[in-house]
């Protein structure tokens, strides 16, 4: 499948959006061994906050898809308007959880929830395949980073 310059830009920006996940995870993983142990609590908080921001952003994308599809697929748009606010509410609640296994599993759930909605949108041909591929890659890397961070914390 041929990609357009706009699609390549979307992939690049999405990959750059993974940098905070990876950087915070590396601090948690190697912080003690490179005399950066004092930054580990900050890295954990930054990771939690960034995950919440990203989950909210993804909900906003789904809201936008609802706006674009409201005339052609009004039922899908109504469902998206309702579902798209859930990620922001979940992410907000995530910020109040202590930095524990429970909070980490909540982050996985939030990212997974948004991905499942996108999978359903792909099945209904509401979003293009390239976008779902992008979302799948970055979601897998983000969840992978969160798993490593959980082990390292």
Care to describe what's here?
- The protein is mostly helical.
- The chain has one domain.
- Helix content is 80%, strand content 0%.
- The chain contains 6 helices and no strands.
- It is globular and about 55 Å long.
- The N and C termini lie far apart (40 Å).
- 26% of the residues are buried.
- The mean pLDDT is 91.
DSSP E strands, number: 0
Radius of gyration based on Cα positions: 17 Å
Number of domains: 1
**Helical content class:** over 70%
Q: Determine the number of helices (DSSP H or I, runs of at least 4 residues).
A: 6
* String of helices and strands: HHHHHH
- Poorly predicted ranges: none
* Principal-axes shape call: globular
Please indicate the percent range of residues in DSSP E strands (runs of 2 or more). under 5%
Structural class: mainly alpha
Quaternary structure classification:
single chain
Amino- and carboxy-terminal Cα gap: 40 Å
Sheet with the most strands? none
Averaged pLDDT, please?
91
Brief account:
This protein is an all-alpha fold.
Task: Provide keyphrases for this structure.
single chain, 153 residues, globular
């Amino acid at each position: 499948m041929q990609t357009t310059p706009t699609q390549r830009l979307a992939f690049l920006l999405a990959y750059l959006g993974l940098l905070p996940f990876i950087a915070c995870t590396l601090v948690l993983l190697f912080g003690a061994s490179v005399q950066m142990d004092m930054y580990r609590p900050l890295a954990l908080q930054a990771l939690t906050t960034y995950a919440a921001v990203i989950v909210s952003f993804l909900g906003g994308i789904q809201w936008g898809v609802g706006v674009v599809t409201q005339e052609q697929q009004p039922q899908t748009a109504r469902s998206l308007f309702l579902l798209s606010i859930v990620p922001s509410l979940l992410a907000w609640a995530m910020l109040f959880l202590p930095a524990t296994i429970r909070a980490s599993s909540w982050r996985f759930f939030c990212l997974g929830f948004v991905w499942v909605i996108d999978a359903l949108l792909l099945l209904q041909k509401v979003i293009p395949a390239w976008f779902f591929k992008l979302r799948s890659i970055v979601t897998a890397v983000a969840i992978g980073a969160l798993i490593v961070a959980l082990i390292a914390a």
